[in-house]
Amino acid sequence: MARIVLIGEAMLELSRTQDTWRLGYGGDTLNTAIHLARAGHDVAYLTALGSDPLSAGLKAAWKAEGLDTALVLNHPARNTGLYAISTDARGERSFTYWRNSSAAREMFALPEMEWSAAIAVEADLLCFSLISLAILAPADRDRILALARQLRARGGKVAFDGNYRSRLWHGAEEAIAVRDAAIAVVDIGLPTLEDETALSGEPDGDSVARHWTACGCDEVIVKLGASGCSLTDGTVLPPPATLSPVDTSGAGDAFNGGYLAARMRGATIQDAALAGHRLAGWCVMRRGAIPPRDADAPYA
Fold first, then answer.
1. Which of 10, 9, 3 is nearest to 43 (CA)?
2. How far from chain centre, in Å, is Cα 48?
3. pTM given for the model
4. Consecutive H or E run containing 6
5. Does 224 have pLDDT greater than 90?
6. Predicted local distance difference test score (pLDDT) of residue 299
């Protein structure tokens, strides 16, 4: 069992079923954290929530999922962000956000963050995403990258997902510079071809992998959507089954969770990628970014 710390922004989630809206929670690194905890790893989530009852409810729900919530900080003046999911007939999703004043944006301003960072640097694996960096001020982004360097110096591993959301950046040039600085301090890269194409024009998985390895990341798994993923050696590994998704929300995060859970138990890259496909496939056949665990969930 590995000790894993993930950093990022978690939000309240509104998802619609016919004429009813359901209130849940989600966020890219949070989704991955819960999958890793369900898989049996020792997982902590580092973020900031508000001090309101909804935030307290989120923290209790994550603890019930098996997350260590000791690093979940409470902002005295800000609330938790909110997003709503809409899906089309093919299960493809779109999002509407209310996050500009979220507590997570000021997590590094809280006095408890120094203690939290000291705990995080002792982990076996540290995970964050481009969204984790996008919501923060430049100085706070640098603090996450410094934390990654410190953790690697003491023998830990760092994983990074290049989730790109254009509305969170002043422009593509800023996002590319931050992405590439992050790639340089990580061991495991989990980019998505769609994001890389939108951000810097990469046409295929091989091109993405070449760029990431040139920036300093040795293990790069490029997510290709329904086509599967491209492994570090260029092999394209398709998913084990062709599905008609109900909701693709959180599919990439589920892949990350399955992949990292297996790798941290010593699985090969190919076996870990298959584990990622199985978990992502289970997720897209259910609604919400974090579907409730059921008997078919492939966490074992």
1. 3
2. 16
3. 0.94
4. strand 3-7
5. yes
6. 94
What's the length of the chain? 300
139 residue type, one letter: A
Q: Is the pLDDT of residue 289 over 90?
A: no
Q: For the chain, list the domains and their CATH numbers.
A: 3-284 (3.40.1190.20)
For the stretch 115-173, pLDDT in tens is: 999 999 999 999 999 999 999 999 999 999 999 999 999 999 999 999 999 999 999 99
CA dist 231 and 93 (Å) reads 26
Tell me the C-alpha distance between 120 and 177, whole Å. 25
- Residue 82 backbone dihedrals phi, psi, to 5 degrees: -140, 140
**Which residue in 125, 138, 164, 101 sits closest to 46, CA to CA?**
125
- Rounded distance between C-alpha atoms, residue 81 and residue 105, angstroms: 10
Closest CA to 162 of 122, 113, 209: 209
Say which of 218, 247, 253, 296 is annotated catalytic.
253
253 in catalytic set? yes
The model's pLDDT over 70-129, given as tens digits with 9 standing for 90+, comes to 999 999 999 998 888 777 777 666 778 888 889 999 999 999 999 999 999 999 999 999
